[in-house]
Design goal:
0% strand; homodimer; Four Helix Bundle (Hemerythrin (Met), subunit A); 8 helices; mainly alpha
Chain lengths: 247, 247
């Protein structure tokens, strides 16, 4: 199979998996957890998984912007602005998702940030915010020295993948934690270990998130699918002062 | 700082983090969870986290074999045999770790493989076994066609990283799950949300595992730290019939 056809096959698969993730988390929250509100109850908490999963799917698509062949005719600056804007959307979703969890905890007198899930998830949001800020300073400010831009590019790429892995770990531990809390509660009709339909649905959501992230990582890491840059020097991608380029 | 010095700095850090992970999981199981036995009780289960965490640390070191500059004077075949042997050790630890969990579950009449943690962890072990088998067939059997060896190399590398990410996700969700089960049990003196010393210890274990894996991923992905192969053709690493090479 031609390499570009293989790319589009995996890209289509990633879009489908991402869509399924959003559908599964919404159905879980809406049909099994009582739907949505912003009132400090469990319905407020339900925004947390929906925002975080949607944020993860959007993040996967944001880091993929430079790999899409139909974007290669666009200016690099436009691609960088799209990348930064999509990631700002991810950050907004993460902040709303955190507010939903904290609001629910505060209202129910549950401490915040005690579980390993919350530690890893919160660290992922902090890392993501720093990554966005440093990416903006390094690649979108024309006054940033070229040597710094070059030096930072590999770090930005690597931490982008690390944040993806951290969000997957946080999501899977969060789904697992939520299922234990709600299905093993005294008023539950079927415990987690009996695998009721809700447990199947949410477990499959976790598997879908993992598969989605693997397709994204594969497309990002495969060297031959990187954006070609025939007009520039070897150092171009890292060293162009992006806000002043006129491609 | 010189690039090789930076490598050894991160390598030393990874060794230290790996050692700390093994110490932390052993202290957790020994001092907080009652120690070790092979009798179907919680003491049998305690082998599960110890084997899995030790396996993860050994796996990180196994995939790093080709990156260590002091191994570069060795024959490629010897490196491959070391890589395969270390990974066989990882597989043994994973199998013992699974037996410990299944033996405990069966004795306590708890179903196996119902939680998302167990789905992801079990899938990681299955993937790891397939990866080992396919790696052996592709890179250690001299009769494997060169085109197949070349085609499979990227896939082997990518799935090696995926398995690392999956084991981290499984470990973090497993630590989180175990802490909820034991600290929120009716006979517990301090629930998880009060962050008793055991919760701190195990949460920090999760953070250490994450940091360890990030150092390994950084060393693996950084292109300039790959093993040089000046004597061979461009395709050498992928196409040498390894059991017949005489480097």
């Amino acid at each position: 199979m031609k390499s570009s056809n293989m790319f589009y096959l995996i890209y289509t698969l990633s879009l489908l998996l991402g869509l399924l993730c959003i559908i599964f988390v919404t159905v879980w929250s809406k049909c099994y957890r009582g739907g949505f509100a912003w009132d400090g109850t469990g319905m407020m908490f339900n925004w947390h998984p929906v925002c975080m999963v949607t944020g993860l799917v959007l993040y996967g698509n944001a880091i993929l912007v430079y790999r899409l062949p139909f974007t290669w005719s666009s200016s690099k600056l436009i691609l960088k602005l799209v990348h930064a804007t999509l990631n700002l959307g991810v950050l907004s979703l993460a902040v709303i998702g955190l507010q939903a969890a904290f609001g629910f905890h505060n209202n129910m007198h549950i401490p915040n940030l005690y579980s390993l899930h919350s530690w890893v998830g919160f660290a992922a949001v902090i890392f993501f915010s720093l990554q966005w800020l440093l990416g903006f300073l390094a690649f979108l400010l024309p006054c940033t020295p070229l040597w710094l831009r070059t030096a930072y590019k590999d770090v930005h790429f690597f931490f982008g993948l690390c944040i993806l892995a951290m969000t997957v770990a946080a999501s899977l531990s969060g789904i697992n934690e939520k299922l234990i809390f709600v299905l093993n509660a005294p008023n539950s009709t079927a415990p987690y270990k009996k695998l009721p339909p809700e447990a199947y649905l949410a477990n499959i959501l976790g598997v879908l998130l993992l598969c989605f992230s693997l397709t994204i990582a594969w497309m990002i890491l495969k060297r031959e699918w990187q954006r070609p840059n025939p007009h520039a020097s070897a150092l171009s991608d890292a060293t162009e002062p992006l806000l002043t380029e006129n491609q």
